[in-house]
Amino acid sequence: MTNQNMAISDAQSAIAMAITAAAVNNSPLFSTSPYNITMFSRNKFPKSIETVAAGTHGAKNIACLDAMRASSPTRSMSENNEEKKAWIMKHPSALGVFEEIMSAAKMKQVVIFLDYDGTLSPIVQNPDQAYMAPEMREAVKNVAKYFPTAIVSGRCRAKVYNFVRLSELYYAGSHGMDIKGPSSRKHKKGNQNVLCQPAKEFLPMMTEVYEILLEKIKGINGANVENNKFCLSVHFRCVEEESWNDLADRVKSVLKDYPKLQLTQGRKVLEIRPTIKWDKGKAIEFLLESLGYANSKDVLPIYIGDDRTDEDAFKVLRERGQGFGILVSKVPKETEAVYSLQEPFEASYEFSSTTSHMEAINVAQSLANARIECG
C-alpha cells in the first residue's frame, strides 16, 4: 500500500476498534444474565422520576416504580422478536454499516466520544469494580493515536481517569459538568488546556446532600450512594424490587429541601444533579468548540453510549446534522442514535460469543486493511 493508503487504513482500523470494542463489551462474554428485552413506544415510555410530581401519592409511586423498572428490563428476547427486528431496521448495527461510516469520514476529522459504564466496561453489581479490561484500554489508546478521543461519563472525572489511566484523552465527568483536556498532546488543533466546571458553585451543596443520603438510605440492603463530585448516584442494582419505592421516597424526601437539585434515573441508578442546563450534549458541544470544530463542516463526531443520559449527546449530533450516535444496547428502546451495537458477531464480523477482546479487534483491523487494499 502507499503511505496515504496506510494512513487511511490506520484510521479505518481505529474507528473499527472503537466500534468493535464497545460491541464486544456488550457481548455474552461479559453478561451475568440471559438476554433481556423490553419494548416501549415513545408515548408509553416511563417518565423520568422528576416528572411524576403531579397526581396522587399512589400514582406517583406507580410511575416512579415504572421508571425504575425501565432501567432493568426482564422480558425475554423471544417475546418481542418482530419488534426487535423492526428496531434493528431503524437503528442498524454499526458493524454492519462500517463502510457507510468510513465513507462519511472521508476528508474529515473524526472525533470519538465514549461513555464508560456499559460501553468500555461491563455493567457490574458493585460500581467500584467496573474495571476496564487491558485489551479494551489498548483499543482506546490506539483510537486516540489517530483521533481526539473523550470519555463522557456520569462518574466523577477522577474516578473515570483511575479506571482508564490514559493521559492522552479528554475526560468529561459528572455528566459533562467536569471537563479536562489531556496532559499529553496528540492532536495539534484546538485548545488542549481545557477545563470546564459549570456547576462549581454546587459543590458544597452536593457534599452536604451526599452526607445526608448516606444516613437516609441506611436499612435498605444493597443501596449505595456514590459521590461523583457534581452529581450523586444512588445505585439500586443490588436492592430487592420491593424496596425500590422506599428508596426512591427517601431520596425524594431529602431533595425537597434542595430545589436547585433534580432527580433523574439511569440504568438501575437514581441521579441527583444541579438544575443547570448542562448535560452530555452540552459537554460534547464544548469539546468540539475547544478542538476548533464549533462550526466546522470538516468534522465527524462519533458518540458511543448505552445510557439514557447519552441521549442528550445523540440529540446534539442529530441537530448538528453531523456525525453518528451509536447506542450500545441489547434492549430495543427509543433513541436519538442512528446506529446500534448489540453483539460482536453480527453482520460480516461474525464473532463467536467466546471471542476475546483482542481477537475481535484484530478481526476489525484485518477487515479494515483488506477493504482499503482491495479498494
From TrEMBL:
Annotated metabolic or biological route of this protein: Glycan biosynthesis; trehalose biosynthesis
EC number(s) stated in the UniProt entry for this protein: 3.1.3.12
BP GO annotations: trehalose biosynthetic process
Keyword line: Hydrolase, Stress response
Catalytic reaction list: alpha,alpha-trehalose 6-phosphate + H2O = alpha,alpha-trehalose + phosphate
Residues spanning the membrane: none
Recorded superkingdom: Eukaryota
Cofactor(s) needed for function: a divalent metal cation
Enzyme class: hydrolase
InterPro entries: HAD-like_sf, HAD-SF_hydro_IIB, HAD_sf, OTSB-like, Trehalose_PPase
GO terms for MF: trehalose-phosphatase activity
CDD domains from the UniProt entry: HAD_TPP
Listed NCBIfam families: HAD-SF-IIB, T6PP
Family: Belongs to the trehalose phosphatase family.
Annotated function: Removes the phosphate from trehalose 6-phosphate to produce free trehalose. Trehalose accumulation in plant may improve abiotic stress tolerance.
PANTHER family named among the record's database cross-references: TREHALOSE 6-PHOSPHATE PHOSPHATASE (PTHR43768), TREHALOSE-PHOSPHATE PHOSPHATASE C-RELATED (PTHR43768:SF32)
Protein name: Trehalose 6-phosphate phosphatase
Organism listed in the record: Ambrosia artemisiifolia (Common ragweed)
